[in-house]
Design a protein that fits this description.
The protein folds into two domains: about 5-100 and about 290-310, NAD(P)-binding Rossmann-like Domain (Rossmann fold, 3-Layer(aba) Sandwich), CATH 3.40.50; about 100-285, NAD(P)-binding Rossmann-like Domain (Rossmann fold, 3-Layer(aba) Sandwich). It contains twelve helices and eleven strands. The chain has helices at about 20-25, 40-45, 60-65, 85-90, 100-115, 120-130, 160-170, 195, 220-225, 240-250, 270-275, 290-310; strands at about 5, 30, 50-55, 70-75, 95, 150-155, 175-180, 200-205, 230-235, 255-260, 280-285.
């Protein structure tokens, strides 16, 4: 099967450190565009059978103007940038990538947990500011340092990623509790959120953002948590009510938080968490998934999805 493809926003994936040879081998032609503006989408896809997109929107109106299009490969797990119904109606197969970032995100989650437990960022800043140099003792211990061993970790979202976080946390001697999510199948050993939250020392989020989980961690949730507890969010920003989190941190309802995600990304118009300037809040720029190994696995999955389509053995289709 002779196919031409266009990757509309490969710059979201490649930091000049990836090998695209397996993906190139799937097509007669592969055009890589670092980024694509909305008004450029139709022009760049009009002569290809395969569109590859990370975040560039391919909506129903666009799809209707692309009669040659046969396959859309999403270089992500989330498929909300593609109108799946419109694609199916036009006979276009849509495939995503899955599980490529499990090791990277789990590692980042533990990194954030450890940074909060050890006051790592605050100690680094203290040294940079010369405070250790002025200490009367050989050590400088102004900020609390906690051991993860013996602490309880609550996990919201116990799929492949949540289970990997649990495995790593158990290596540190942590106890694991699993949250049951609204309108989702109950886990055999799961607890309802109002039962789980008072017990946890750390709460880590690994569930999708859905109408049921939007703002699920809000002022009511923070009231149930220990004032010594920490929140970790490497899932989606909208799961946590950001203004309520700021209030909880300022009022000492919880001890600290770390998030890799915000409700709007990038936060060009500001964000209540960024503006808060809180010493017990760590924010990273949606980087948890971004190890070179994770991003290369995504390239390989894109190639696998293309080969599956060409051979008639379609995999990872999201618009069945």
């Amino acid at each position: 099967m002779s196919l031409a493809a266009a990757f509309l926003d490969y710059g979201s994936l490649d930091m000049n450190d990836l090998d695209f040879s397996s993906l190139r081998a799937c097509f007669n032609e592969l055009q890589l565009y670092e980024s694509t503006a909305p008004e450029q989408v139709i022009e760049r896809l009009s002569h290809v059978e395969v569109a590859i997109s990370n975040k560039v929107v391919i909506d129903a109106e666009t799809i209707q103007q692309l009669p040659k299009l046969k396959l859309i490969l999403i270089s992500a797990t989330g498929a909300n940038n593609v109108d799946l119904k419109a694609a199916k109606a036009q006979g276009i197969v849509v495939c995503n990538c899955q599980g490529y970032g499990t090791a990277s995100v789990a590692q980042h989650t533990l990194t954030l947990m450890l940074a909060l437990a050890t006051s790592l960022i605050r100690y680094d800043r203290a040294v940079t500011q010369g405070r250790w140099q002025q200490s009367s003792q050989f050590c400088f211990l102004d900020y609390p340092i906690l051991e993860l061993s013996g602490k309880t970790l609550g996990i919201m979202g116990y799929g492949e990623l949540g289970q990997e976080v649990a495995r790593l946390a158990q290596a540190f001697g942590m106890q694991i509790l699993i949250a049951n999510l609204p309108n989702r199948p109950k886990h055999e050993n799961g607890l309802e959120l109002n039962e789980l939250l008072p017990q946890v020392d750390f709460l880590s989020l690994h569930c999708p953002l859905t109408p049921e989980t939007q703002n699920l961690i809000n002022a009511n949730a923070f009231e149930l948590m220990k004032n010594s507890a920490f929140l970790i969010n490497c899932a989606r920003g909208g799961i946590v009510h950001e203004a309520d989190l700021v209030d909880a941190l300022k009022q000492g309802k919880i001890a600290g938080a770390a998030t890799d995600v915000l409700t709007v990304e990038p936060p060009r118009e500001g964000n209540v968490l960024l503006d808060a300037n809180l010493p017990n809040l760590i924010i990273t720029p949606h980087a948890a998934w971004g190890s070179v190994q994770s991003r290369q696995r995504m390239v390989e999955q894109l190639a696998e999805n293309a080969k599956g389509f060409i051979s008639g053995q379609i995999i990872r289709q999201v618009n069945v």
